[in-house]
Amino acid sequence: MIKNRNNPRSELFAHRIIDWQQQHGRHDLPWQGADAYRIWLSEIMLQQTQVVTVIPYYHRFVARFPTIAALAADSEDAVLAHWSGLGYYSRARNLHRTAQLIMQRHEGKFPQHFEDILALPGIGRSTAAAISAFAFHERRAILDGNVKRLLARYHAIEGYTGEKKIEAQLWQQAEASLPKRDVAVYTQGLMDLGALVCTRSKPQCPICPLQADCMAHQNGLVAQLPTPRPRKVLPERHSTFLLLLNGPDILLEKRPGNGIWGGLWCPPQVDPQLLSRTEDATAYCRQHFGTETIHTIALPTFTHTFTHFKLHITPLLLQVINKPKQIQEPGMMWLDVDDALQAAIPTPVRKLLQEIQAGRRLM
Q1: pLDDT digit string (tens) for 275-294?
Q2: Which of 65, 79, 130, 355 has a CA 20 to 30 Å removed from the CA of 204?
Q3: Separation between Cα atoms, residue 350 and residue 80, nearest integer Å
């Protein structure tokens, strides 16, 4: 547990956060006051994702998987389908795996001890602390992106917050500022203040409860802190999507569990160098899928940016004139475009299928 520290500035910080949250914070989020399962789910969904985006996904997810047992018993495909569009799909795979581990190791009940929560897949120190604070009112410090920004400004801590040395300083401040009571209110207040007031751009310092002794505000450093991530040129990759259409059906393949879009359904992807000519695409499809194609059309290339690289995608639209009864390649299936939109597919694929569905790109 966290040791108590008699630091008047830290105590005042916590007191102001709690008072502000009770008066101005968010009190109508669907997971507030819920059980540990729903709190865990919300915390995982909120990683790298804003509240306004998460809420509709959260409602759909708990409607399909109302309990840990329901989540554990269903298929990974179903879980990924209900996650489709949220991105960072390893979160969904970890949710499914964790639910199964909870059924096996904890008799289907979400564990209450911090160390047991931290040991679960996909749960780091800050997420485990947030679950402990909200579900079990345990006195634990959090340090998500919003809190890092808030603490870096309040204490005028310079340096990129993702650097280990800087992150260690922030953890020290986060632990030192913990109140002796009302930890759930305080934790929610930190999140709300960072999301609503101490924002990355255009922070609302005049209405911030911390402005009187915020060191960045006092020293005119709000715009400079936290120190931005060092700029890094993202590597670029190229890929071709083969959009094989036969009437209302499209051919999809399941991505490997590791790598980008792991476990999701996508059109077959090919190295563009293998398909430099239309005849090459026709020959490739004949060899790998047993299909004959006509009317190959190269659609405009578009870019999808991941955390670590940019992917330039060129979709090739191919009309299939003889859909084989059996697909030669494993992990592939023909789906009606309408059904494919309900499957576990990544956002760029969803956009392409929606355009196909609307008839804008049908041949």
Answers
A1: 766 678 889 998 888 898 88
A2: 130
A3: 13
Which tokens go with 271? 């190295």
CA proximity to 42, closest of 170, 164, 155, 131: 131
Q: Which of 43, 115, 175, 279 is catalytic?
A: 43
As to burial, measured by CB atoms within 10 angstroms (0-12 exposed, 13-18 middle, 19+ buried), residue 273 is: exposed
Residue 308: CB atoms within 10 A of its CB come to: 9
- Among this protein's residues, is 76 annotated catalytic? no
Q: What number of residues does the chain have?
A: 363
Q: How far apart are CA 94 and CA 112, in angstroms?
A: 19
Report strand pairing: 236-246 vs 310-320: parallel
Tokens read off for 110: 């979400």
In degrees and rounded to multiples of 5, residue 302 shows phi and psi of -135, 165
What would the CATH number be for the domain defined by 236-357?
3.90.79.10
Distance separating alpha carbons of residues 112 and 132, to the nearest angstrom: 7
Please tell me the distance from the alpha carbon of residue 198 to that of residue 205, in angstroms, as a whole number.
7
Give the pTM.
0.87
pLDDT tens sequence across 291-336: 988 888 888 999 999 988 999 999 999 999 988 766 656 789 999 9
- List, by residue range, all CATH 3.90.79.10 domains of the chain: 236-357
**What would the DSSP string read from start to end of 277-289?**
SHHHHHHHHHHHH
Distance CA 111, CA 108 (A): 9
Domain with CATH 1.10.340.30 in the chain: 8-218
CA gap 363, 355 in Å, rounded: 12
Q: How many CB atoms lie within 10 A of CB 73?
A: 13
Is there a contact between 190 and 150 (Cβ–Cβ < 8 Å)?
yes
